[in-house]
Every structure is written in C-alpha cells, then in structure tokens.
Amino acid sequence: MMRSGIAIVVTCILVFFFVAGEAFAADPGQAQKKVAAQACPVPATSAAPDVSAMGERVVALERENLVLREDLGKARLDSRTAMNELEKRRAEDAARFQQKIDALNADLAAEREKQARRNHNLWLAIGVVAIGVIAAN
Fold first, then answer.
1. pTM for this one?
2. Closest to 54 measured CA to CA, from 39, 35, 32
3. Helix (H) or strand (E) holding 56
4. Nearest to 89, CA basis, from 79, 77, 97, 99
5. Distance, CA of 32 to CA of 37 (rounded, Å)
6. Helical spans, DSSP H, in 26-50
7. Residue 22 exposure: Cα atoms within 13 Å on the Cβ side
8. Do 55 and 40 meet the contact criterion of CB atoms below 8 Å apart?
9. pLDDT on residue 95
C-alpha cells in the first residue's frame, strides 16, 4: 500500500516536470530577451537593436559602476577615518577627565586629613580644659 502511494507521488512529480518542461521549451531564451530589452530599450521606430549602441551602453554602465565603487570605497575610508578620529578624541577626553577626577580625589583626601587633624586637636584642647576644670575643683 505504501509503495503504491510513493509511486503515485513520484509519477505526479514526473508528469509535472514533463509538462512544465514542454511549456518552457516552447520559447527558449525568453528570459534573456526580456533582460536585454530592459537593459537597452529599443526605440519604436527600429525593429532591431543597434549592436554598437548597446555595446557603448554596456561600456558606459561598466564605467559608471567603477566610479560608484571608487566613490563607495572613498566614503568607507572617510567614515572609518572619522570614526578613528572620534574614538581617539573620546579616549583623550576620558583620560583628561580621569586626571581631573584623580586630582580632585587627592584634594579631597588632603582636605579630609586636614579636617581630621583639626578635630583631633579640638578634642585634645577640650580634654585639657576638662582636666584643668577637674583639677581646679
């Protein structure tokens, strides 16, 4: 039962390809003709396309393609150079900013140390005064 089902499916596929092949074989080169007509449109007055005009058109398109590729390459190089310069500038700014942060942190640490010495001296003075008051009584 299973083999007959597979045989039917394979037969249907072969029939489809046979019919489709006949349909495509009826007009060979139709796709090429369509592409050629789009690339170089034929004026309504002439029946056959001018081969030299088509050749010139192909050469012109190849030159234009080359110019566009060169422009694209230059644009990529320019953008890459600009990105590198921006990255370099950002790194320099970050280094300068970090230096400022380090300097401010050092100033802050020095100020804390100075304030700690003042507080220590203040408490020592209060202690001496307290001992003097206790000794006077």
1. 0.43
2. 39
3. helix 51-136
4. 97
5. 9
6. 30-39
7. 5
8. no
9. 96
